[in-house]
Amino acid sequence: xxxxxxxxxxxxxxxxxxxxxxxxxxxxxxxxxxxxxxxxxxxxxxxxxxxxxxxxxxxxxxxxxxxxxxxxxxxxxxxxxxxxxxxxxxxxxxxxxxxxxxxxxxxxxxxxxxxxxxxxxxxxxxxxxxxxxxxxxxxxxxxxxxxxxxxxxxxxxxxxxxxxxxxxxxxxxxxxxxxxxxxxxxxxxxxxxxxxxxxxxxxxxxxxxxxxxxxxxxxxxx
Length: 222
Prior knowledge:
Blueprint: H1 4-33, H2 37-64, E1 68-70, E2 76-79, E3 84-97, E4 103-114, E5 133-139, E6 144-146, E7 172-181, E8 187-194, E9 214-217
Parallel strand pairs: 1-9
Antiparallel strand pairs: 2-3, 3-4, 4-7, 5-6, 5-8, 8-9
Helix pairs in contact: 1-2
């Protein structure tokens, strides 16, 4: 389970560095408009130095990470600052033959709001809207496939809730996703990550530059 403290520190480090860089740039602009070359030079040096230092730490943290595959049935946690959401793959099954001889696979994912991770400042009745997610089905050769863009029914008798639906502490729901794999491709893992631009610049975040993924292992197809 990820640490809320680490996530908060990562966000504060990004916002603090961004604020100092902007402040230094403002000082540089002020120096330029008031013929103060020393202030302009110092402002640019500080802005450049802070940016380089932060980018260096960001890249090192990403390169030092390692890709992991969680065992089938395990939950992957996402920290939402004052609480956590957990995701688990419950079922994987081929549902139809796709065009060109491939196969359409249905992957059922359960989303759970872990009530044990709520901050003391958060109301237990307040709903949470999950951040946007990006999903890819990974085959046994490491090839990645995006979710199918289809309006066809999921699986007969199977209800599906959008991954963006809000939850309250202790609530959960399941979502059935469709992926089209070419002939011979066998699904092995699911990549489920946060799809936010700002996450690219958070130190230690899975979505940051060069950071390796944490994949969800799939249960046996059935």
